[in-house]
Amino acid sequence: MRSLLSFLVPLLTLVSLSSARVHRAPAHHVRQLATTASAPSSVAATASTTVTVSGSVLPTNATSNSTILPTFAFTLQSTNPTAVPLSSIVAGATSAPTSPLSAIPAPGSVPTYLPGAPPLPDPNTLRPADYPPLDKVPPIDSPQVQQWIADVKNSGVAIPGFSPNVLGGCSANPQAASDPNRCWWYCGGCTRKTDITDCPTHMEWGLTYDDGPAYHTTQLLSYLDQVQLKSTFFVVGSRVISFPSILQAEYLDQHQIAVHTWSHSYLTTLTNEQIIAELGWSKKVIKDVLGVTPNIMRPPYGDIDDRVRAISIAMGLTPVIWTRISPTATFDTGDFNINGGLVSVSGVLYNWENIISNATARDRGFIVLEHDLFQQTVEIATGYILPDAIAHNFVIKPVVSCLGLTYQDAYIELNDNKTNPPLIEVSGAVSLTATPSGGLIQSTGTSGNSASKKSASNGLALAVATAFGGLVAGSMIIF
Ligand SMILES: [Zn+2]
């Protein structure tokens, strides 16, 4: 077992880098430090044995980065022959041209794979003025939001009465972080039986991409089409306003569409009414563009507690997080942080290698956090992670499929409510009782994402969580 100190040293580097760069990030991309570290926790100076590609890659054109990031050893079984070089996947990378959609969806098209789906609306009729300002928590005084608030009140789902958290993460909210009755996933990984956090079948990967649609999503769609894979896209309502045709293309290509809020805010910091507005506007814009409404949601940053859960369930949305088997073994590639200059591409591939180990070792399948928001995240997905995953023989599916459900089960209007009854209608499901593995601090492993590191005591895990809090008290960092 690696020492606590060696675990924290790279973290300290991250924290110091982060504080220096907060001002550069748009509000949407400012992330608080979670106790679920996705940052690589060891530094290897040399390349390990390679099959196709392996190594520690230093950026050769670090551009805006004045600090060279730590590099990490990794091994990949396969890469995409047309992948951009790893040395080009850096913060401040030169913008690559975006590829056009292979086909612009025609209004009136019907997704033939989805029985009962209505014809596709015309995205040109979408009027941004009919929606809240982009990337801001929507106001709650509109008649539309007031109606959704009334609907939640009438749903019969009891919303816990605790007050919203303040921004600043676990250390800024110590009482909430230590309250098992809140079951705050972001601080400790607590889950409820209503949460979807993995796929039931060994070696099955419920593929997900968050934060789009965006400029480089088309490149991801093109690659997924090439290798005949389907994904789940957790889309941000504000991005749907900007890229409605890309959302339609995802949907027509048999990818699952899901809710990732309107403004990508920390949901536990919002009032009940604001959470309702975030989820309601996201549902509405997706319905306006596709004609159907998703029935799963992912809380940005994994920031969900029982209050957010209850509101989501009352609005017909089942929470989906990503797999987490210990405080330091979360299935988060960290890809988001390349763009912000907080992790090197080798760090992300090191995380990926550890995810593979953990995924292969566990009995059930898994869900990984990745993004289609940035050029770098799409380049690493299409060039490296997905080809490597295919070579490892993972069975890759959208979340709805890995759960053994049909595409109709993914949308409120098409779900027959029998094979996939909404949680709101399942007796007892909204009582939000803890899962056997749920708890304040789930366990084991303090020294990286490796499957072999499962021996640490809960006491040490708690100590690490405390150390995190001490390191970042009161500060916001990109993460
Ligand atoms: Zn997100």
TrEMBL record:
One of its GO terms (biological process) is fungal-type cell wall biogenesis. Gene3D superfamilies: Glycoside hydrolase/deacetylase. SUPFAM superfamilies: Glycoside hydrolase/deacetylase (SSF88713). GO terms for molecular function: chitin deacetylase activity; metal ion binding. Its cofactor is Co(2+). The keyword Cell wall biogenesis/degradation applies. Its EC number is 3.5.1.41. Keywords: Carbohydrate metabolism, Cell membrane, Cell wall, Cell wall biogenesis/degradation, Chitin degradation, Cobalt, Glycoprotein, GPI-anchor, Hydrolase, Lipoprotein, Membrane, Metal-binding, Polysaccharide degradation, Secreted, Signal. It is found in: Cell membrane; Secreted, Cell wall. Pfam families: Polysacc_deac_1. It catalyses: [(1->4)-N-acetyl-beta-D-glucosaminyl](n) + n H2O = chitosan + n acetate. This is chitin deacetylase. It comes from Amanita muscaria (strain Koide BX008).
